[in-house]
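Morning F.,

Quick status update on the modeling queue. The single chain you submitted on Monday has been processed. Sequence for confirmation:
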Amino acid sequence: MKRAVVLVGCFISVLSACVDDAELSGEVEDNRSAEEVPEANIKNGEKEVNEQDIIEVYTKQLDAMETGDEGTYMNTLSMDPDTEENIRSQFQLIQEIGAVIEAQEMEVTFDSSTKADLYVKQKMYTVEENQEFLDRILEVIYHMEKVHGKWKMVGSSAIGITFLEELAN
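Structure tokens below.
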């Protein structure tokens, strides 16, 4: 889970890079006209997305996932549906990768047939091999997002963890 938190931190850093430093500090009032406000913030209505909001949402979502009570914590952060879905998907992905690495369940097979399934089986690996595993996972994810454009998380099974499954077109 520690690795998942580190990955979440990296993801938050990427998201927060898009937010103005002065606004993050809270020292500058937002007196901009509608024309000066970025499109993403207009979509969000009254509330602008800032780093603290994102951290709060991730923290609540992580707690909820660990206790099995996911609820609707993502809705505490107002944002357009595409952005919310992207953040939710990325967070779930990061959380699952972290859980698998933490449990040392590391053997991967990838089937590129009609339904591409990534299975994580139980096997012990070293820390260096864990990083190789993570790199392979990310490679597959990027490939699937780029080529197929859609994917979803699926649950655990008795044999191992069915980690990622491509949605049928």
